[in-house]
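Interim report, section 4.2 (structural modelling).
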Amino acid sequence: MGAVIDPVGPSALDPITVVGAGRVGRALGDNLAALGRRVRYAVRGDRVPPGATAVPVDGAARGAGLILLAVPFAAVGEVVPRLGLAPGQLVVDATNPFGVDTGGSPSGAAVVAAAAGDGVRVVKAFNVLGAEHMTHPALPDGHRPVLPVAGDDPAARGAVVELAAAMGFDAVDVGGLDAAALLEAAARYWGLLAFAGGRGREHVLVSHRRP
Ligand SMILES: NC(=O)c1ccc[n+]([C@@H]2O[C@H](COP(=O)([O-])OP(=O)(O)OC[C@H]3O[C@@H](n4cnc5c(N)ncnc54)[C@H](OP(=O)(O)O)[C@@H]3O)[C@@H](O)[C@H]2O)c1
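Predicted structure of the assembly:
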């Protein structure tokens, strides 16, 4: 049985298993570790981040308060069922299904939820901006990158909003997981501005309110 996250709050989420130690996994893992969170990486092979704790992919969810999915979307179908997820556990899906067929599912997050199994709480977050904004999100002028968070379980969603805010993002609760398709499109929109629009990977979207 996985960690129970009701009542929720960032302190209830440790240890955090980051699945994938690539650009996104490392950047978010470094942010979380700097906050004092207990982070361990689920990796295949021997590419363990220096100084980090690593666990095998098989059974990596056991005992975790939060599982952060940061593998290529094409690997979701293979990796997620191997994690040993239990009902009640919280999976944060940071993947983007770029150029990969979601098999008729409305979003990549829906594919993750199906692979995770009944009762696992899937929250979409951290997917709308480049990895280079994930370790130290705040801009020099104090603005924070806007970070939408979607998931069907309000407590799980709220816990991720709270955690993302502590990590330095302008986290926004956008409701249920049916918003995930739009968040995945938002990642493409960030890329459109970065590449076709010439803003580069350094650009990030912030949300201002007109006074
Ligand atoms: N890069 C970005 O700016 C960005 C931003 C937002 C969201 N995303 C999304 O985040 C996810 C990760 O992107 P990334 O840029 O961090 O990718 P990446 O740098 O290529 O890292 C991918 C990680 O996943 C691992 N992995 C790949 N296939 C695996 C498998 N079958 N089993 C176990 N581990 C596996 C890799 O391990 P090995 O080293 O062993 O290959 C590596 O640690 C993707 O879904 C991407 O769309 C990326």
